[in-house]
Design a protein that fits this description.
Order of helices and strands: EHEHEHHEEEHEEHHEEHHEHEHHEEEHH
Number of helices: 14
Number of strands: 15
Radius of gyration: 22 Å
Structural class: alpha/beta
Largest sheet: 9 strands, mixed
Helix content: 25-40%
Shape: globular
Oligomer: single chain
């Protein structure tokens, strides 16, 4: 049996959270040695005091865990928080906005923004999407990996963002969007070969729900979720949100590959927080997971095949929710555009058309009418936000001077810094003849045990 702990925790108080985490470690019978180089990966996809207030791991939860690690595991040699934010925003800015700099000062932990540090190419041997992946050196060389997700809904991953989906943030740059469409469940499972967490501690004190993964609002849930298996963890989190785990493809794909249990029958839920309590709260919430053409707005969305939950359809749905979440008045006044997502076979009348993604370009379009093509398979959030602003003056809530400067000036400079660090690192390897050995993920038996 796989143990998953649900601990009641009412507020973001580091001491109270630390007590819950300590109880959880005992409850899941976590007995792995924590020593050497420890890497912590939270969810910092975006943090902003006005437009992205709920969808990230709060620093109080990380503070509580770091305090326990420093107190109980003196054999830890190095502590790193490694993360890659979304939307082409610098992770260093998110560290600052989210309040993580205080953790650096208090616990001596290093804050490692993936786009600004040295990275390594790691071969995967049992993957279906990636033959190799580029990850932070710290991620590849660690001894212990701890995931600290935010419990939230996500329309790109069948309604749930948990420990498994957090793994996409292990990828950088173009690899992150490579086959980020109907292959996303396979991408997520691929990443477990290099980044399979040893421990998961999830911030569910407030859960985020119902909109864009960055800008959505939240509600009080009052739970800390802990496990030492990512699949078991996500099976339970799905039930907390009243989702059917059998319909969440990345959970099922990871289970098929032997990374954890296939059903909740193999999971023992322990702790003092009842599953039914969470379900009573989330039953009344709209998680926003629906076909993009079913969202009522002034725009007419023509949805073609194939429907890509994690690709063009889902990312455009995510863009719609950005506006609906934080600018409802703008949402009600969106221009009357015809939006084509996927290959649409039906005949369309003339008008103003926006084509989202490469498949839309192959649709049967009328000769007359203005057409704007946002290319990509899929296009990034950043590209959609920018092109819709330039062509239609739709000022998404994330179109803010500080974020624009960060995305288009600071972020490229950080990428240049990373390129320079990589060049120095690989030159050192060539000159010294050093053989680079990355972290070897433990082999799994058929039940997912290491």
């Amino acid at each position: 049996m796989f143990n998953v702990y649900l601990g009641a925790c009412s507020i973001y108080d580091s001491q109270q959270i630390a007590d819950v985490i300590q109880t959880g470690l005992d409850a899941i019978q976590f007995n792995q040695s924590i020593s050497g180089h420890v890497v912590i990966k939270p969810n910092l996809v975006m943090a902003h005091p006005a437009v992205a207030t709920e969808g990230y791991t709060r620093p109080a939860v990380v503070d509580a865990l770091l305090g326990l690690l420093r107190r109980d595991h003196p054999q830890i040699r190095k502590l790193d928080i490694v993360e890659k934010s979304g939307l082409g925003i610098t992770t260093s800015a998110m560290f600052k906005t989210a309040g993580y700099h205080k953790l650096k000062q208090k616990h001596g932990v290093r804050l490692r923004a993936m786009e600004a540090i040295a990275k390594v190419n790691v071969p995967l041997h049992n993957a279906q999407v990636h033959d190799t992946v580029t990850v932070a050196r710290e991620m590849a060389e660690r001894d212990v990996l701890i995931f600290m997700p935010k419990l939230k809904s996500n329309v790109l991953s069948h309604g749930l963002s948990g420990a498994l989906k957090l793994n996409i943030g292990t990828l950088d740059g173009r690899e992150r969007l490579h086959r980020h469409h109907y292959d996303l469940p396979h991408k997520i499972a691929d990443m477990l070969e290099i980044a399979n967490p040893d421990l998961i501690v999830t911030d569910g004190i407030r859960m985020a729900y119902g909109g864009n993964q960055m800008t959505q609002h939240g509600t009080h849930l009052g739970v800390i979720v802990m496990a030492d298996n990512a699949v078991a963890h996500d099976l339970v989190c799905a039930r907390l949100l009243n989702l059917n785990p059998a319909g969440i493809e990345h959970i099922q794909e990871a289970a098929r590959r032997g990374y954890g249990p296939a059903t909740l029958n193999e999971v023992r839920i322990v702790g003092d927080y009842p599953v039914k309590k969470a379900q009573s709260i989330t039953a009344g919430l709209d998680l926003g997971f629906r076909p993009v053409d079913q969202v009522e707005s002034p725009m007419t969305v023509h949805s073609g095949a194939p429907y890509c939950t994690a690709g063009c359809h889902g990312i455009f749905l995510d863009w719609i929710y950005m506006i609906k979440d934080r600018k409802p008045k703008l949402f009600a006044k969106l221009p009357a555009l015809n939006v084509i997502v996927g290959k649409v076979e039906k005949d369309l009348q003339s008008g103003r058309f926006v084509l989202i993604g490469d498949c839309a370009k192959t649709s049967r379009l009328p000769v007359r009418g203005r057409k704007v093509w946002i290319r990509g398979c899929p296009p990034s959030h950043k590209r959609i936000v920018w092109d819709m602003m330039v062509h239609y003056l739709i000022f998404n809530p994330l179109v803010r001077p500080s974020l624009i400067v960060d995305a288009y000036i600071r972020y490229p400079l950080n990428k240049l810094k990373s390129f320079w660090l990589n060049a120095i690192w690989y030159r050192h390897i060539r000159n010294t003849g050093t053989r680079y050995a990355h972290h070897k993920t433990a082999e799994l038996d058929q039940s997912g045990n290491r």
